[in-house]
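Predict structure. Chain length: 98.
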Amino acid sequence: MNHLMCRVQNFEIVGPHTIRIGFDDCTEQTIHFQPVLRGELYGPLSDPAYFERVTLDSEVGTLVWPNGADFDPATLHEWPKCERAFVEMASKWELQMA
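Prediction complete.
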């Protein structure tokens, strides 16, 4: 099994819970995160002010938030392929907290 190796190089918040992400292979993804902002780790990011506290961890090459929430850069890079599974996982996190 091969794991894509990529790094986030830059990002821009372009809307509520939406970030345009630039990768080291010169590709971009624009991701609306709201559907996965559930559970103990990602739930706090549903607050727009907290979501906007995102930073780029240049050491690991991904987006991070003050509470330790982050996403594998390969997941972000391949978001169209991963989004459905991530949303399904997020709905389970929400049930676990109920």
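Summary: The CA atoms of residues 7 and 60 lie 7 Å apart.
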